[in-house]
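Recall from the previous chapter that SMILES is a line notation for molecules. Here it describes zinc ion.
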Amino acid sequence: MAECTCEIVLSPEPEARARTLWSHTTVRRHVYTPLRGLLTDMAAGRERCMYCGDNQGTDIDHFEPIDRHPMRAFDWSNHVLACSLCNSHLKGVAFPLDEDGRPLLIDPTAEDPAPHLRLVLAAGTYHPLTPKGRATIDLFDLNRGLLVKGRISAFHVTKACVAQWAGATAECDHDAATHWAAVVDEQPIADVVQAMLHQALDPVAEFLFEDDPQLLTHLRDPRLRSALLIT
Ligand SMILES: [Zn+2]
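With both inputs in hand, we obtain:
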């Protein structure tokens, strides 16, 4: 392959330099495209935005914006698969900090959102548990109507699929059980499934699932959790 001979004119300012490099055609071809492919592969076929969990992840967002930390423009751990709404419209260059200068957003590449956010499954809404959870909900508008509607629907679909899995398991129909576990695993709004599995082990799980104790039993079943690679 011929070496690229085009010259990249770089500004002495680190922010502008990083931005120029990140958006340069040659760099995008050699870095952006394979990087997006890797992030997509890690999304396990769902290819969803790591912030809202709903839209397709079409962009690579810099969790810590280039303007704030240009040296992280090409830092693997600073790259997040995101939809254009979350990346460009809602987050943009915003990066809220607490009074000690620490990030107030949940980093989806490094942090478990569970200590910061609780998904109220039946309502489809996120409830903040910490200031970081509050800031993340506000910045990404996580309780907007379409997301809430999608989560409620995903909750009902997942419940039905888990019931099918339980029926197949009880009848020792392993192929059907594997099929239904895969359907659960591939639900497009993955945060709903993750919240169901997480909340099933919560100390107040009996209260959270009081309307459907059978569902709680299934969600705690090690065979289902193992099929979904959750312990
Ligand atoms: Zn999004």
